[in-house]
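Can you make up a polypeptide sequence alongside its tokenized fold?
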Amino acid sequence: MASRTRDKLIETAKQLFIHKGVENTTIGDIATASDKGRRTIYTYFKSKLDIYNAVIETESERMVSQLREISQSIGTAAEKLQRFIEMRLSADRSPSSPYSILKSLLSMDFARMSKTRRKAWEKEREMLASILDEGVANGEFDCHRAKMLQTVLHTVIPAIDQMPATDADAPIPAAFAESFSILASESVISLR
């Protein structure tokens, strides 16, 4: 029950922060919107900043967990790599994606946005390395090509994160994400 209440407060605060802005949202607003009293909020959080931090942490973990599911799924390393890259490039910028939510919450807090993305990217790099290592270990990927692809992806993905918003942050075209993911997975397949 306690976890559900805390989760509801975080979700409610997230929605208010997105629609009203962090500065314009009060503890009272969160209490009213969540049908909880201020005392309940202070049972779980010390301040609005504490709630804000919980929202950021929750969305960041949600973003990483989607990719973790792919990296730990059943299938060939090439299939995992393709799904990982597709998800990372296309779903990344849809309005309901954790990335877009984080971006809107942190839009004026560039240092924090950078730090949050860096932490998530470190986790993503580990998952990507795991997929590539799996492919090399089972003979599916060429070791040298896997290392080269890893270097390319370590450059391309953060660069895409830094791309300026266009057309209300429209997602990268699905065709590009799919083509790039196929090209990337095929580029490391071992030539037998």
